[in-house]
Each structure stands twice: as structure tokens, then as C-alpha cells.
């Protein structure tokens, strides 16, 4: 879960706790809690955490779990530190991870050697997400980053080359999806502009202008 989503849920939980305590001492009904607002930027950040989980917890692209657990004393293993029911603690740990540059060393030390060539990708992705709570990261910036690092991956190992090709296909497919979503958004915007209400108002405005011209 992204830092922004965690912050919202933590806030709503605190509000619900306050309302529940008030309800227990009076008959005042609880106020409705607003729903959490989620965007594509939250999904891109969540995808980043999943990517880190794979780099640290697995040892190959075929779902082979790491035999020897990652060790990085005195630091806690990143995915383990985020798996807590204390959402506020989880939020603070993720915010700290993204904000403090020295935390990048944890990625290097904890990732399995198989994924060593992906460390530069993880570090740049982390940089893009530093301000995701205020300035949301875009699909285009993530796609550009993926394409840049995929092109830089070394050749020579058939297994790795096939993995690279699959990742490239995924990036292309994701890029096509983004373009499709943009097209849909543009079309929906056009439909809203030409809605029956807007067309009716435009007709009234036109008729009023014609009437004024005739009277003048």
C-alpha cells in the first residue's frame, strides 16, 4: 500500500476511534466516514514495493524462493518491516525509506545477487516516488524509466535474455494500455462536454441571442 493511502487509512481509523468513544458515552449517531481516495500513482508505488519484495525474497524469475534469508544487521529486512498491522508504523517506515537516501544501501545489501543488475532500476524508481504524496508520479515517467533500464540490461545469458524480452513486452503492453486509457479519458471528456444538459443550455443561449438580434 502506498504512503498516501496509508496516511488516509490511519487518519480515518483515528476518526472512527474518536467517534466510537463518543458513541459509547452518548446516544449521538456516528458520522459517516469518507472513503479512501486511490489513484494510479498509488498503484505504481505499490508495484514498486512488490518489485522490491521479489528482489529480496526470491532468487530467480521462476518463483524460486530464496533459500537463505537476507541478512542486513542492524537493519530490518525491508518487506518484513512493512508487514505489520500497525498501519501508522508501516506508513512511517515507508516514508523514511523513500525520504532518506542512506536507506538505498538496504536495497543493495538485501537483494539477491541474481537481481544485482536491477539495483539501478530500483534506486531510480525509489527516487521518482520520493514526493509521490504531494506530486503524483506519472505512468510516462515510470515507462520511460523501465524502457531505459531494460535497454541497458546485459545480454549473453539465454535465461536472462528471455526474461528481458518478457519485461520489454510487458512495458510495451503497459504503454499501450496507458495510451488507451488516455484516449478513453479524452473521449469521456468530449462526451461530458456534449451532454444533453450542456447542449440544451447552448440552444437556449443561441435562441436568446437570435431573439435579441431580432428585437434590436
UniProtKB/TrEMBL annotation:
Record protein name field: Uncharacterized protein
Amino acid at each position: 500500500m502506498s504512503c498516501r493511502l496509508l496516511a488516509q487509512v490511519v487518519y480515518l481509523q483515528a476518526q472512527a476511534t474518536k467517534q466510537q468513544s463518543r458513541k459509547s458515552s452518548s446516544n449521538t449517531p456516528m458520522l459517516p466516514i469518507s472513503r479512501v481516495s486511490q489513484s494510479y500513482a498509488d498503484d505504481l508505488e505499490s508495484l514498486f514495493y512488490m518489485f522490491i519484495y521479489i528482489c529480496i525474497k526470491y532468487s530467480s524469475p521462476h518463483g524460486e524462493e530464496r533459500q537463505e534469508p537476507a541478512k542486513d544487521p542492524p537493519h530490518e529486512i525491508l518487506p518484513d518491516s512493512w508487514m505489520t498491522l500497525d498501519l501508522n508504523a508501516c506508513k512511517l517506515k515507508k516514508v523514511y525509506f523513500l525520504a532518506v537516501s542512506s536507506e538505498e544501501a538496504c536495497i543493495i545489501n538485501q537483494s539477491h545477487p541474481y537481481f544485482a543488475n536491477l539495483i539501478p532500476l530500483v534506486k531510480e524508481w525509489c527516487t521518482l516516488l520520493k514526493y509521490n504524496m504531494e506530486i503524483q508520479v506519472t505512468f510516462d515517467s515510470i515507462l520511460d524509466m523501465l524502457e531505459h533500464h531494460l535497454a541497458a540490461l546485459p545480454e549473453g545469458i539465454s535465461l536472462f535474455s528471455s526474461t528481458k524480452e518478457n519485461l520489454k513486452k510487458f512495458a510495451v503492453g503497459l504503454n499501450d494500455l496507458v495510451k488507451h486509457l488516455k484516449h478513453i479519458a479524452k473521449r469521456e471528456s468530449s462526451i461530458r462536454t456534449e451532454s444533453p444538459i450542456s447542449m440544451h443550455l447552448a440552444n437556449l443561449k443561441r435562441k436568446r441571442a437570435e431573439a435579441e438580434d431580432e428585437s434590436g
